[in-house]
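call fold(seq) -> tokens
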Amino acid sequence: MGSRHRSRELAVQLCYQWTLNPVSLEDPKVIDRFWRESALAEFENRVFFEMIVRGVAEWLPKIDAEIESGLENWKMSRLEKVDLAVLRVAVWELMFCTDDQRPDDRVILNEAIEIAKKFGGPESPPFVNGVLDALLRKRQASSGQPS
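ret:
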């Protein structure tokens, strides 16, 4: 398993916890405590994990607006909290990440689906796929890129 995949999983877990018990995701103590309690000792990609968590915290209103624009017949308040955490991490990476190692959009989408399979319910992977795919199509249409 790639270290970036593990970073995404951990970021989803922290964002999920944060959704249930809001604390500042920008607080280094919160991030450090979560890291020490959750990450494996040999896991080396803490920098990417922190970049995701801080990015989600910084861009949260815009991330949630993006997610809401991709929902059909759903309200944000009805989303499963795990699905919401997966979507927040994926939307941050798709739309706000400026990392020079950022993968292709489809890789990010596939990573989100795999994480939804691991942490969500049976309906999570197709739901996450549908929302993210709608956002990618919308972005392609607005930029004039072919699908």
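Residues 45 and 64 are 26 Å apart (CA to CA).
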